[in-house]
Amino acid sequence: MENCTKDDNTLQNSIVLFQLIIYIPVFSLGIPLNTVAFWVFCCKLKRWTETRVYMINLMVADSFLLFALPFLIYFTKYNHPTDKLCFTIRNIYFTNMPMSILIITLIAIDRYIAIKFPLKARILRSPLKSASICGLLWITLIIYSYMRLKSHQRMEQFCFRKESIQPNYPLLFSIIFGYFIPLGIVIFCSVQVIKCLKNKMATNPHETKLIQKAIHIISVNLCVFIICFSPLHITLLLRFAVDVAQACSLVSAVRASIQICACLANSNCCLDAFCYYFAAKEFPEFPSLFPTCISVRSKMNQSQESQPPTDQVVTQTRNSAL
Questions:
Q1: Which CATH number do you get for residue 163?
Q2: Residue 3 lies in a domain
């Protein structure tokens, strides 16, 4: 197996400095922000909703990522070997970043179902189902991360530093199914929800203002998701292409790009708390504000002759979207 072991100490020192510039504020802000977010979603909110379940799981994943940040700096600076400590931190890191991505995807799907299909949402959505999905994801990711890292543990000399140019096909699988497919889902759900809210008949200025705030929050969350995670996964794809091409001369530059883009991706564990805390503050039961879109109302109006909905049914539908 061929390795690319040529080091550039100046480049590595620059990367460590860049990590310190990014990670110190992220770590300093992330701890209090995630603590406040935990307090809001665990204690402040009165009702257990699907969003509340997802947000608590997202805060757990982000907190574990925050815990791993100091180790990432240390491993980069001192070329730490692949020992038990390295294996543990890598398991934490490679479990919780995909978990954060998948939970954000679930939040987008849940919001889409609640707003686009409010009647079916009563059957498809529940806090227990959300907790079960999150539990299944945790178990799957923990097992997958452990097995993948265990099989590659002896192939690399230093922690978080792939020097071989042997293509890592499990990594390619993780990139596609762990990010690019969720990215497509998040974009589709967010765009559909925004369209649905824009088409909604506003009955008063206050409702229009709420819709505008909701669209702004969804748009910001989507932009943060794309900006944080896309550069890292694009550079990971580039690294896979370099390995396939056996281009040893490009490994050092691509590895540096991955480490820089990882800083941006890891900052998401701080930005999540900003985005969703203010979303919860403005809209504590977000889906309940907009349970029905024009398209759904049109279908209901078309079916009024056969089975007109009563005020009680509409009220129950809105409550089920919480």
A1: 1.20.1070.10
A2: no
Residue 318 inside a domain? The answer is: no
Chain segment 259-275, per-residue pLDDT in tens: 999 999 999 888 887 76
Q: How many structural domains is the chain composed of?
A: 1
**Is residue 254, in this structure, part of any structural domain at all?**
yes
The verdict on residue 144 lying in a domain is yes
pTM value?
0.82
Dump pLDDT digits (tens) for 88-137: 999 999 999 999 999 999 999 998 998 888 888 888 889 999 999 999 99
Domain boundaries, position 288: 9-297
Structure tokens, 317: 């539908």
